[in-house]
UniProtKB/TrEMBL annotation, chain A:
<dbReference type="InterPro" id="IPR009025">
    <property type="entry name" value="RBP11-like_dimer"/>
</dbReference>
<dbReference type="GO" id="GO:0003899">
    <property type="term" value="F:DNA-directed RNA polymerase activity"/>
</dbReference>
<dbReference type="Pfam" id="PF13656">
    <property type="entry name" value="RNA_pol_L_2"/>
</dbReference>
<keyword id="KW-0539">Nucleus</keyword>
<dbReference type="InterPro" id="IPR037685">
    <property type="entry name" value="RBP11"/>
</dbReference>
<dbReference type="InterPro" id="IPR022905">
    <property type="entry name" value="Rpo11-like"/>
</dbReference>
<keyword id="KW-0804">Transcription</keyword>
<dbReference type="GO" id="GO:0006366">
    <property type="term" value="P:transcription by RNA polymerase II"/>
</dbReference>
<comment type="similarity">
    <text>Belongs to the archaeal Rpo11/eukaryotic RPB11/RPC19 RNA polymerase subunit family.</text>
</comment>
From TrEMBL, chain B:
<dbReference type="GO" id="GO:0006351">
    <property type="term" value="P:DNA-templated transcription"/>
</dbReference>
<dbReference type="InterPro" id="IPR036643">
    <property type="entry name" value="RNApol_insert_sf"/>
</dbReference>
<dbReference type="InterPro" id="IPR001514">
    <property type="entry name" value="DNA-dir_RNA_pol_30-40kDasu_CS"/>
</dbReference>
<keyword id="KW-0240">DNA-directed RNA polymerase</keyword>
<dbReference type="InterPro" id="IPR036603">
    <property type="entry name" value="RBP11-like"/>
</dbReference>
<dbReference type="GO" id="GO:0003899">
    <property type="term" value="F:DNA-directed RNA polymerase activity"/>
</dbReference>
<dbReference type="InterPro" id="IPR033901">
    <property type="entry name" value="RNAPI/III_AC40"/>
</dbReference>
<keyword id="KW-0539">Nucleus</keyword>
<dbReference type="GO" id="GO:0005736">
    <property type="term" value="C:RNA polymerase I complex"/>
</dbReference>
Amino acid sequence: MNAPERSSAFLLDEDSGEQKCVYTADTKVTNAGTFRLNKEDHTVGNLFRMQLLRDPNVRFAGYYCPHPLVHFINLKIQTNNSTVAPVEVLGSAIEDLANETDHLITQFQESIETWKRENDTEMTSQF
Amino acid sequence: MSTKENSGFYRVKEAGLEYQHVKAEIPTPKDGKEFLKRFRENFDLKILSQEGNELVFELIGCDVSFANALRRILLAEVPTVALEYVYMINNTSLLHDEVLAHRIGLIPLNVDPRLFEDLDDPDEATDLNTVVFKLQVSCETQQNSRLQKGKDEDMNFETDPNVIENAELEKAALAATRKKTIETPGRPYTKHVYSGDLVWMPQGAQAKHFPNGIRPVHDDILIAKLRPGQEIYLEAHGRRGIGRDHAKYSPVATACYRLYTEVELVDSVYDDDAKELVYVYEPGVFELVPTSKGTRLGLNRV
């Protein structure tokens, strides 16, 4: 009776003008800010956090889901110096991840070709 | 700064000297291009085995979070087509309407979801975004079938006379109905309704786009059991969806990953000590290597 729509877990609420990403600069700490990613969960949060931690410009990166029934994550980033903004750092992290994924796709397809050639079995059109 | 890869230092403790290992620090990449270069050099993907519906592959040089994200996306965000809206015309079986609809929704369909569009509103169903299936089965009462026995023997029905008289059933469904009929003496006949009984109704241009037809992946999924006099007549509409919406849209039975730890032998271990240590971890991690100095403990490198 009170259950919310399942689609509200991953579809942006257009009626209330929900945006995918909202940035709030941190008032007390320099070079820091919080990104609120709506309708996202650990899948993307953990991935962004790990990628940000590999960046030498990042001093602090962490994410959390405030409540499992409300579907958004808060991603906090603090950079080392005031020349690099958290927004830029997140942008480059996302770009790197996209390139990584592209490389994964090509590598996967190559591996499938190699496997098919080696095994020479009757593969269905699954691949 | 030691030049050896496994440099370390001694730490003096109450129990004695303890050697603390320090792995050589790999400097963090300066920027995206260097990171990508390093990734491309180290990354490898090997397919280990593929049998039937199961694929096992190995990701080397990639991060845990990447593998986990891949797993989560496989479970929840890869779209599939499944039956969602079930319109009941007649259901006199023992299963409630909603239970039957739930079971029908869980049946996997052999459709490529990329050929379909998303359906937001069931009122706007078109042939581009909906699949329509019909299920019409009924269980003959025994008296009727016994009366018809004389008639049926003239016709070319190879099976028992309790087969329902509906000759519109497809051959596959007929075969399914013949399987596993329970015939215990003294009890009335039970009809099993299998997923093979679902009949695809091509809408609009679908007959052209799918010349081979759309079927459930398995024909022998038991949906319901009917007693004599009971009938199920329903029409089911399917649409595309993702696992986050409902688990029936998840394309994988399961997707899992396992992180392999890296084991390093700091010092060589020989003979009796080696034999003891081989069984410390699970089989396959260590192996005994015969050398000139005796049996040495080696790492099993795949």
